[in-house]
Amino acid sequence: MKPVLHIVGGGPAGLAAARTALAAGARICLIDDNHAPGGQIWRGGPERWTDPRARAAWDTLRGHPDCTVMQDAQVIGCRDASTLLVETGGRGVAVPFERLLLCSGSRELALPFPGWTLPGVTGAGGLQALVKGGMPVCGRRVVVAGTGPLLLATASTALRAGAQVVAIVEHQPWPRLSAFGLGLLARHGRKFLQAASLFAELRGIPYVTGARLVEAKGDDALRAVVVRAGGKDIEYACDFLAAGFGLVPNTDLARALRCDIADGAIQVDGGQRTSRAGIWAAGECTGIGGVDKALAEGRIAALDALGLSPSGRDLPLRRAAHAFAALLARTFGPDASLRAMCAPETIVCRCEDVTAARLLPHRDWREAKLATRVGMGPCQGKTCGAACAFLFGWSHEDARTPIMPATARALSDFE
Ligand SMILES: Cc1cc2nc3c(=O)[nH]c(=O)nc-3n(C[C@H](O)[C@H](O)[C@H](O)COP(=O)(O)OP(=O)(O)OC[C@H]3O[C@@H](n4cnc5c(N)ncnc54)[C@H](O)[C@@H]3O)c2cc1C
Fold it and tell me: Tens digit of pLDDT for each residue in 5-56?
């Protein structure tokens, strides 16, 4: 009997793992909650991919007799340590597993500032995903602000879709950005070239550094953005603000499965094994580091789960990717000064309209939850939980099944 590997997440980590496992003679079941495979960076499905690595993985998976792909399928939690609960097509399906690989990716860190809940304000990756999904931005004015390389990628996506990118506002000062560039040049030549080509594409667009968001202005919708740079406030009229402050690992399912988490990421050893027997993890859910880290970790995890050794090329690739991840974190990890963006009257929990002033008197997440309903709306703290961790140093509770909204019909199928 062929061994079976269940994989949650159809991004680069999950696709690389699936391809590797099939090549090693296993059967795989890939479960992903998007309409099409690809995860974040390869969003939109095979017909839109330009990266040959995505195409190579999909060419192996598509139509393979040992490959089952469940798209539009959310793993909403687990029944026990060896059964996933999946909602698909409005029904609930229990999926038992022996070997499980978590490739659940990351989500954006949304930091609150005055006006961030106005229509027209999104995350940086959020705007990118909307544009890739077909939202028209042709001729619309876009400001991209926050910190990190995703700002440049988002500006490029908006520009290619015909938007007028009014400004890119980076929180880090120029000397730190230069040091990052030199670090890329010294150890990550390909990434340096990618960054240089993005800058070339975006030339002519004001790139304001050492600046932070003060306010998004508008009534029913966004009208303008105010940023502070060099002690002066600058106002940009715009239709969209893409505000990005980096990414946080998506550990919801790992928490529900009781895997160890540290520094916000799933803890893994050299074989990408989590603290729970029979469960591996790869990609951004084990730490933010980009597509190369996801691919190398996915391949290593798949082989380890099948009792095989990693290929000779993947260990150095993973080491290089981890060095890049550390450089990213050193340069763009959101620093405490960004807390000043959040005024007392700023809404922190947008589901339940809870302001910073109402949260301040509380000692921890649990106490604040009981007193204010923070984190108790539809997103169940997926957005405001990370914001509260950054603003107040509160750690999250363990995730419980269901880890995301599920229909009553699907839940009743699990009875
Ligand atoms: C919004 C956003 C935009 C980004 N844009 C870029 C970019 O332009 N360039 C870049 O270099 N990097 C970008 N990144 C970083 C990017 O995530 C990584 O480079 C790379 O995609 C990581 O691959 P991964 O396989 O680890 O995770 P992902 O690509 O995030 O894939 C994870 C997959 O798992 C699925 N999933 C998670 N939980 C469940 C569940 N419970 N049930 C079913 N499916 C589940 C997700 O929907 C997703 O399809 C972006 C990240 C985010 C969050």
Answer: 999 999 999 999 999 999 999 999 999 999 999 999 998 889 889 999 999 9
Residue 309 DSSP code: P
Tell whether the torsion through CA atoms of 59, 62, 63 and 64 is positive or negative: positive
**% the chain with pLDDT above 70:** 100
| Three-state SS at 35 | coil
181 and 91, same domain (yes or no): no
Task: Check if 10 has its Cβ closer than 6 Å to any atom of ligand 1.
Answer: yes
| Ligand 1: centre distance to CA 367 (Å) | 32
Number of Cα atoms under 13 Å in the Cβ half of residue 118: 23
User: What six digits make up the tokens of 394?
Assistant: 């509160």
**31 plus 92 within the same structural domain:** yes
pTM of this structure: 0.95
Task: Provide CB contacts within 8 A for 403, sequence distance 6+.
Answer: 75, 76, 77, 252, 253, 255, 256, 380
CATH assignment at residue 71: 3.50.50.60
β-strands 83-88, 73-80 pairing: antiparallel
Q: Cβ(221)–Cβ(210) under 8 Å?
A: no
**pLDDT tens across 235-267, in order?**
999 999 999 999 999 999 999 999 999 999 999
Tell me, in angstroms, the distance from the centre of ligand 1 to residue 1's CA. Answer: 32
For residue range 297-340, what is the model confidence (pLDDT) as tens digits? Answer: 999 999 999 999 999 999 999 999 999 999 999 999 988 999 99
**Is 307 within a domain?**
yes
Q: Which of 34, 41, 380, 400 has most ligand 1 atoms within 8 Å of its beta carbon, as the pocket-test mutant?
A: 41
Would the CB of 13 count as within 6 Å of ligand 1? Answer: yes
Q: Which of 40, 131, 191, 401 to mutate to test the pocket of ligand 1 (most atoms within 8 A of CB)?
A: 40
Amino acid (one-letter) located at 128: Q
Give me ligand 1 centre to Cα 202, in Å. 24
Atom of ligand 1 nearest to the CA of 108: 53
**Would you say the CB of residue 105 lies under 6 angstroms from ligand 1?**
yes
Run of H or E residues at 192 = helix 189-201
- Residue 239 neighbours by CB under 8 Å, 6+ apart: 120, 140, 141, 142, 221, 222
Residues 240, 169, single domain; the answer is yes
